[in-house]
Structure formats: structure tokens, C-alpha cells
Amino acid sequence: MTAAADRESCGVKWCDEAGVHTIHRDYLESIPADSGRWVLGVNVVRPHSSIIGVELTTVPRHGRSTVVRLGRHEAELLHEAIREAVDRIRRRAGRDDL
Fold it and tell me: Please, which residues have CB within 8 angstroms of residue 65's CB and are 6 or more apart in sequence?
């Protein structure tokens, strides 16, 4: 059976996982970070029939991956924190006050 056929057999329509699985994932983005030394994965996830959340996966070029699962509220807090950080970077761009 192909991976596409495996995905079609999952009862969760948005799930991208192949084969037998208990954690459903919708793979959203893989973002290269730190000059390519890391990749940050961002997924929508529903582990073990619990509520849907966000999963962040850090994958170093060498070493072990780390997975952090966030509930909706935690993901919203992270979203706001990243938005604020980006806004601050934009405001400080070109200023020599570091």
C-alpha cells in the first residue's frame, strides 16, 4: 500500500500520517533556522483522541529531535509573542541603538 493510500484510510480527513497511527498530524511547515543548522517543524496535531493543538518539532543537523505540544491557548500566546518580537525587530531595523 502506498503512503497516499495509507493516508486515505485514516478517518481524520486532515491527517497526513501514513500507516497505523494514534497521533494525527497535519504537516504545515518546515522552517530552516540558524543558518540551516536546525529545522523547525510546525504541525496541527491531535494525539490519542485528545483535543487538537500545535506541535513544534526542532530537528538539529546532528543530534536528537525535540517535540513540544501546545494547546490552543498556549499556541495563541506563542503566536502573540512571536508577532510582538517581529514587530520590535521591524521598529528597530536600521537603528544603531543596540
Answer: 57, 58, 59
pLDDT digits (tens, 9 = 90+) for 30-79: 999 999 999 999 999 998 878 899 999 999 999 999 999 999 999 999 99
pLDDT value for 2: 43
- What global pTM score does this model have? 0.77
Helix or strand run (H / E) with residue 22: none
What is the spatial distance between Cα 83 and Cα 85, in angstroms, rounded to a whole number? 5
The DSSP code for 11 is S
CB 63 within 8 A of CB 39: no
Backbone angles phi, psi at 27, to 5 degrees: -75, 120
Q: Is 3 helix (H, G, I), strand (E, B) or coil?
A: helix
